[in-house]
Hints:
- This protein is α/β, with parallel strands linked by helices.
- It has 14 helices and 10 strands.
- Residues 7-43 and 45-56 have low confidence and may be disordered.
Amino acid sequence: MSPRLPPGRTAARHAGRCGAVAVALAWLVACAPAARTATAPAAPARSNTSAPGQAAPAAKGTLRLAVSGKESNTYSVIHIADQAGYFAEQGLDLDIKEANPGVATQALVGGQFDAAHAASPGIAAAIKGAPVKMIYALAEPSPYWIIARKEIKGWDDLKGKTIGAYSTTGTQVLDISRVLAMHGVNAQADGVKYVAPGGVGDDQMVGALRAGSIDAAAFAGTGAVVALDDGLPLLGDMHAIKTYDFTFWANNQALSSKPELIRAFVTGMLMGSRIYKQDPAKAIEYTTSQFGGNRHFAERMRELSASWYTDDGLPTDAGWREAIRYKEEGSGEPSTVAPEQMLALDFVRQANDDLTRTGWKP
């Protein structure tokens, strides 16, 4: 039997389940949070970052957070920080809802969320002057892997072929075309076609590869593990271009009214990210519960992802300007905002300083 994606959503201690990522924005915001559940027993014991004998801090409040999916590698560092107690130890409660980055960005701009995995739409909004700023860079490179049917042996074999993408209306198609050009394939001249096969999920992408209706696909989630377990070849990745799709953003209102909550969130993310990169055993134990008890998924997703996550949550100047240039090329319009004005990085800089000063280790 072919391996399958996780059959259902994992329960999260802070999160509400609000349906599919394509849900209407008004319904998404109105959806009530689900009951909290206990920490999965398979996870390691929590690490206490408070001073010895110090009581847990009083709750500072709730941060409303949008994530693209709780079975994604984007969410893994948040899941680790949550399960390890890093948010709770700082008095932070997260109200997490799932929304694709486009919907999340609209809601973030409108004030329905305080922070969000806004990805490419977040950058697109920021360069037009929207009141949002990046607070954490989980990864610089484009996060996609290109996986093909067994008949496709190399990049050159994609000429005249059909490639599956999560969307054909955003910048992902332009990004895939840029990577193809690096490997000697001119997408337009060589007749490459792009489709979103039956939807935006990995299930549809894997199904289309199995059916032969597409020749290759760009994956950023657990569908990559399923496709590779099917024996399909990994042609390569898109890490050569800097797109900042794995970034978290906050709106100006939250930055001014909830700075301590933003600080606690960023600090917890940084700690979770360092576990994910530097402590494989602990990371896999935590993320096995994230993937519904599927240790194989946890191991493979970390193997595919951890090496290209940032060490400090900070963008590089060159990489950030490259990402902005790609968005400007995609929209055909120059940015109305200077690159540094789209960033609010004092929180993550302070978090790095604090962890260094206290000698914290994963």
